[in-house]
Amino acid sequence: MDKNQAKRRIAKLRDEINHHRYLYHVLDSPEISDGALDSLKHELEKLENQHPELITADSPTQRVSGKALDKFEKVSHKTRMLSLNDAFSENEMFEWEERIKKMIPGKSIEYFCEVKVDGFSVSLEYKKGMLQTGSTRGDGQIGENVTQNLKTIEAVPLHLEQDIDVEVRGEVFMTKKVFDKVNNEQKKSGGKIYANPRNLAAGSIRQLNPKIAASRQLDFMTFEITQGSNVSTHKEEHDLAKKLGFKTVDQTKQCKNIKEVMEFYNQINQKRDKLPYQIDGIVISVNNNDLKKKLGVVGKAPRGMIALKFAAEQATTVVEDIVVQVGRTGALTPLAHLRPVQVAGSTVSRATLHNIDEIERLDVRIGDTVIIEKAGDIIPDIVSVLPKLRTGKEKKFVMPKKCPSCGADVIRKLGEVAHYCTNPKCFSIEKEKIIHFVSKSAFNIVGFGQKIVEQLMNEGVITSAADIFILTEDNLKPLERFAEKSAENLVKAIKQSRRINLQRFIYSLGIRHVGEETAFVLAREFGSLDNLRKSSLEKLVSINDVGPVVGKSIFGWFMEEENIKLIEDLLMHVEIEKMEKQKKKQGVVGKTFVLSGGLDSMTRDEAKNRIRVLGGEVSLSISKNTDYLVLGSEAGSKLEKAKKLNVKILEENEFIKLIS
Which residues are catalytic? Predict the structure, then answer.
């Protein structure tokens, strides 16, 4: 964007960030997630770096936090309480290192890394070893006197082990265990349920009555000694803090280079869910205090320190376009094309908008700045729009009246939210059917991706799923992108997929309303494809978890001549395993399981099938209806949510014992 566009965008970003920072830091009442706010700040910082002449003294990048609350006495900080700039990737860490090395050429730099406790920063001043004043960050220069509340925290020493004058800074936080206990008590009494430990800790310190802070079992850890220390490294500051009687984080590491920093970051990221408190990244400091001091301060942050944040599950970006995708049922799904952004560890450039009703509910327009959310491997959703960032050039989306693939009429069926292409032979519908057929949860033909499907259909080599099983190497070798080895590999993969269990075969057919769960129910109920094909409508409708809408869809599918021919053609090439009846098991039947991370003793698909065979259900996400979270290696954010909702957590050995 040019300078004028950047100027307008910067102004809007500042207003939006200031609004949310005030809600978060002053009122402890955030409307958006930390990840989304970090994303907005990151965009502003990048724009200001590109146009430094547009930086103003009142920009959110140039100050630390909101103003002090009037209900507390003001305290001037002897040394400004700074914040940290954020990094979100290895590349940004190398860029940071390059910047600081230019400022201190020829100097050898060692780094000190520590976990970043997600808490509430405060400053503690001691005279002759006695606690005199405890204050909040405030705007970095002036904070709030919260001494009496801080005195209620057992981890804050009232008298140090040495009678010295010193100022320390650290984080007030609440452990996950205490947070869960508080929320359970609130739930029982019908009180407010708190969003996260950080906000509850901050709110507790800002209470006028110290008894409230005392009742919250808050904790404290020191991360810095700003005055009264003669040590030469940040590592020695941590050691001195411990000698004086303060708690510091155990998860630290001295690193010689950014590669070692990233190794530490990855180690912490894998085990952070098992820590007793929440963290949102790691802090990297130039270990030598003289070098760090020489690097100075830029805006609100010291140049010699940076926070490397964990991948956010939410972020902000811009909707660059909204296009329509035609699915295997003919449904038209609006898809938002986004300005690429990092979310949950991967670059995201698209998000589903589901249907026109969802677009209207969100009031999302082309050109809008939006908050997106990603969970697991699911395509991201747009959570909300930030309308204050609109310029007036945004465009409303209109559902097309003609199919973008074949030009046929588009209709909206009575009582449904989706729009449909009216041409059953639409190329996109046929293509999506075959893509579904070869997918991992269906025939799982390795190497048979979307581009291969499109190529073979465009060349007229295949027209239906059954054609896949008569492909030969000679069919494939003349085609672009196919060499002798790749043709051989694909034919081999097709051959290996010919034997398939009943559940996966049913799912592969792409019957409307029949997902993996329903396919399993049908396989368990009928045991064979022949029994399912002969079933009456009354029988289908009467099955639990099927019902009238799905039952009619299944019955109607098996009545259509085209589908009858497809089944007959497929049966000439594939072998379907019958499902053996197995007794349901107490402790599993009727229970809902969520799997998180990988298991050592079986694949996720094997675990899912085992649960279903024994009468349980498998869900992708944690909710109040979840009975068990099965904890595999590298479990993600599901663990935290399970703890909040009091879902029973099973280690792998406990899970194996339950299903054996």
Answer: 116
